[in-house]
Amino acid sequence: MASINGIPSFMNWVSVNRNPNLTIPQLNSVNSVRVSITTKTPNFGGHNPRQFRVFKAVELDKVITSDDEDEMSDGFFEAIEELERMTREPSDVLEEMNSKLSSRELQLVLVYFSQEGRDSWCALEVFEWLKKENKVDEETMELMVSLMCGWVKKLIEGEHEIGDVIDLVVDMECVGLRPNFSMIEKVISLYWEMGEREKGVLFVKEVLRRGIGNEDGENHGRKGGPTGYLAWKMMEDGNYKDAIKLVIDIKESGLKPEVYSYLIAMTAVVKELNEFGKALRKLKGFTRSGLASDLDTQDTRLIHDYQSNLLADGIRFSNWAIEEGGPSFHGVVYERLLAMYICAGRGLEAEEQLWKMKLVGKEPDGSLYDIVLAICASQKEGNAISRLLTRMEVTSVLNKKKTLTWLLRGYIKGGHFEDAAETVNTMLDLGLFPEFLDRAAVLQGLRKRINESGTVETYFKICKRLSDVGLTGPCLIYMYIKKYKLWVIKML
After folding, report:
1. How much is the pTM?
2. Separation of alpha carbons 482 and 455, rounded Å
């Protein structure tokens, strides 16, 4: 058996678990690979292809195991020794030794040159030759990707320049290991997990500037990309405004983010509007309980401006998505615009998106019609309410009750109690009984209005109607005194 430095320990490592099958680390299991990268200055003359590369070596604790008690063939060790000499191109050596090496031995050659102290760029050349010879199966591809993930991780841990990480990704592309979105995602995740978020942003910008990972130019069908993934990472941490600013900044800096990043940014707008709405509702609760002072004119203006600016950003994203993505993106854009306007409480704008979705063949869920109906009812948009109620004619009794309940609650929220009382009558005409809390809210609202207008007819009629169907007690007495007039309402 041939003997060269490193081979005995390498063989001991290869035969750890005595498994006849190769165990390749999965792409998403970067943590199974521990790497240690060193830098060596190249010292070659002429036009050797290694001259412009930075050599990196990698040490793997566990990448591959074997239960084959037979030693590697002499051809394997001859190939290793010849490649170590670096007197000939790796492709020439492998071409000559091809007939003497099995598929498993070729993988082990790849692993050998990924160890600490070895010329790891030689591993890239070995992989390149395997790719050209059509000898890269799924296991070999996963092995090489895992090695590259380990190298990238070590570069980031060593606080190397972003350019070094980019160069490694470019090397991957040069040898036929295309740095698809999964690899870019790994790099972004590593920056993010290590708290190097600014570097993560710079990495994404450099990836876009160099066009790394693009196939056939802009691929509109890809559901992901570096900008969108980074924006999504920000959203996961609750930094919705940062995600919005990221996409705008990249777009306005002259780069071209993927189309789906605009949709992700629109989702960030929706989430920020939702959180903003929750904060406002909590503030109003504090105000009612006396824990906070009432909002003044300036506060109200600031709230309106903040919401309007968010909506403006969302509209910009929608325009970019439609311009760059084409008709196939219309439905999903209108859907996100609908969510934005619902969160912002913009009834007419939300209704418009419902019909746009329907026109492009993306039928909205029935509950969305009801939600928009409630918003329009709170704002007493009569024409929009009439349009939205037309679909109720062909729905089931259960859906009719749901729709009218949303309408009733919208009127209650907007303080339109006369319309709410009319809706209660409509429900009773259809044999539908409003919920107790909804009925109580209507009666309470009407009682308050009596002090303002002095009109009791609506209140009296709704009380009698509820009593007729057994939804209120038969002895309800209400007295109202105003100046010289006295009303006594008695229901027997």
Report:
1. 0.76
2. 11
